[in-house]
Design brief:
By secondary structure, the chain is mostly helical. The chain has helices at residues 6-17, 25-29, 36-60, 72-100, 107-113, 117-127, 131-137, 143-169, 174-199.
């Protein structure tokens, strides 16, 4: 899962940032999903959120008293980003395994369109790459600007997830597939809201 070179990781990162690429991200993975990129993307997001969150708090503080670093931001960022990236894909994968059984499709057809748990981790991991530039520019003291940056980050990453997950989710019944997509977008909105109010309030 770590047998991937730098050029492949950079290509996958770029593909996650493109709103309308010509190729599905799962096709780009080409049966070789990696955890190297998702791990370092998540780690980079954690430290940048801590850094820019600290800058945001410093700018909002009263400078007549000594500024105290809030290291709970670091543990909060780690828990939020690593937790979301690790557990949400597993939950989605389990839901797909469960609901695809009752889809009425043949076993071979379901397995062909299925997603592995490692591919789910890779998909969610690379979806986080947009939060790196968003976090770098969201420490502005102008609140509406920070809302805009976070909204752009949410839109790009949610579009990336739904566009690539829809062919996989659609193996289930129509009602179930819609519920799963709404769940994916809802949980992702929760991540975006948490990032905004925990680090750039």
């Amino acid at each position: 899962f770590f047998a991937v070179d730098t050029s492949s990781v950079l290509h996958r990162c770029l593909s996650a940032l493109l709103p309308f690429p010509h190729t599905s991200f799962l096709d780009i993975l080409d049966g070789n999903p990696d955890l190297y990129g998702p791990f370092w993307i998540a780690t980079t997001v954690v430290f940048i959120l801590f850094l820019t969150g600290t800058i945001s708090q410093y700018l909002a503080s009263h400078h007549d008293t000594a500024f105290v670093y809030n290291f709970r931001l670091l543990s909060g960022a780690a828990g939020l980003v690593y937790g979301y990236t690790a557990f949400v894909p597993v939950g989605l994968w389990l839901a797909l395994k469960w609901f695809s059984r009752g889809s009425g499709r043949g076993l071979g057809e379901v397995e062909r369109d299925a997603i592995s748990v490692v591919e789910a981790w890779a998909l969610y991991g690379y979806a986080n790459v947009i939060w790196i530039p968003v976090a770098l520019i969201s420490w502005s003291p102008v609140s509406w600007l920070n809302y805009l940056f976070v909204a752009v980050g949410f839109s790009v990453s949610a579009l990336f997830l739904t566009r690539n997950l829809w062919p996989v989710v659609s193996v289930t019944e129509a009602k179930v597939s819609r519920v799963l997509v709404v769940g994916v977008v809802g949980l992702h909105a929760g991540l975006a809201i948490a990032i905004k109010f925990l680090f750039f309030a």
